[in-house]
């Protein structure tokens, strides 16, 4: 079991996306995701997100919004409790990321990217400005098999 953070930084109708192309043996290899990573000992979700955003992008976010807990059930990997954030205010200049390529992507183009199928479910909720939610995404052999939103099965 592990705790991670993920943040979608938004500007001018675009999200800052990370195309994970640099690390070998990366479960997210070739996928487009937000910015984040694993908690360090003693970190809160906000501290983890803030640290990971700065390490991966060089940006300092100012208004993290805690939007969801997303549970990933994807054997043989440990269960991942992802703390999902959005932010619209930041300062700094984007730097090169050692995990992949950072790019501002228009939200209308997200479905053109190589995303995990489950990401579409939480992107829809973020776009609808859904209040804080809990989602469980179950994958078997990288295929989405079940989606549970706030305790109700929706797929």
Explain the overall architecture.
- This protein has 155 residues and is of the alpha+beta class.
- It has a single domain (2-153), classed as Nucleoside Triphosphate Pyrophosphohydrolase.
- The chain has helices spanning 45-57, 117-127, and strands at residues 2-11, 14-19, 32-33, 35-38, 60-61, 65-73, 80-87, 90-91, 101-106, 133-140, 143-149, 152-153.
- Strands 1, 2, 3, 4, 6, 7, 9, 10, 11 and 12 form a ten-stranded mixed sheet that branches. A two-stranded antiparallel sheet has the order 5-8.
- Strand 6 and strand 7 (80-87) form a beta hairpin.
- The longest helix is centred in the N-terminal third of the chain and has 13 residues, at 45-57.
- The protein is globular.
- The two termini are 24 Å apart.
- The model has no long low-confidence stretch (mean pLDDT 95).
| Model regions low in confidence, pLDDT < 50 over at least 5 residues | none
At the fold tier of CATH, the topology name is: Nucleoside Triphosphate Pyrophosphohydrolase
Cα gyration radius (Å)? 15 Å
Order of helices and strands: EEEEHEEEEEHEEE
The count of domains is 1
Report how far apart the termini are. Answer: 24 Å
CATH superfamily, please? Nucleoside Triphosphate Pyrophosphohydrolase
Beta-strand content estimate: 35-45%
Shape designation: globular
Total number of helices = 2
**Arithmetic mean of pLDDT:** 95
Q: What structural class do you assign from the helix and strand content?
A: alpha+beta
Known CATH architecture = Alpha-Beta Complex
Sheet of most strands: 10 strands, mixed
Give the strand tally: 12
In CATH's first tier, which class applies?
Answer: Alpha Beta
Give the oligomeric state: single chain
Helix content: 10-25%
């Amino acid at each position: 079991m592990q705790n991670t953070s993920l943040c979608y930084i938004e500007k001018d109708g675009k999200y800052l996306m990370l195309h994970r192309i640099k690390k070998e043996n990366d479960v997210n290899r070739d996928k487009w995701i937000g910015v984040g990573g694993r908690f360090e000992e003693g970190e809160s979700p906000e501290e983890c997100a803030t640290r990971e955003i700065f390490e991966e992008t060089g940006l300092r976010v100012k208004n993290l919004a805690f939007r969801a807990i997303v549970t990933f059930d994807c054997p043989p990997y440990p269960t991942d409790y992802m703390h999902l954030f959005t932010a619209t205010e930041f300062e700094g200049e984007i730097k090169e990321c050692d995990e992949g390529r950072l790019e501002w992507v228009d939200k209308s183009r997200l479905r053109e990217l190589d995303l995990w199928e489950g990401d579409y479910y939480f992107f829809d909720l973020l776009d609808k400005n859904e209040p804080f939610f809990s989602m469980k995404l179950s994958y078997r052999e990288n295929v989405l098999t079940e989606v549970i939103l706030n305790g109700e099965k929706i797929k």
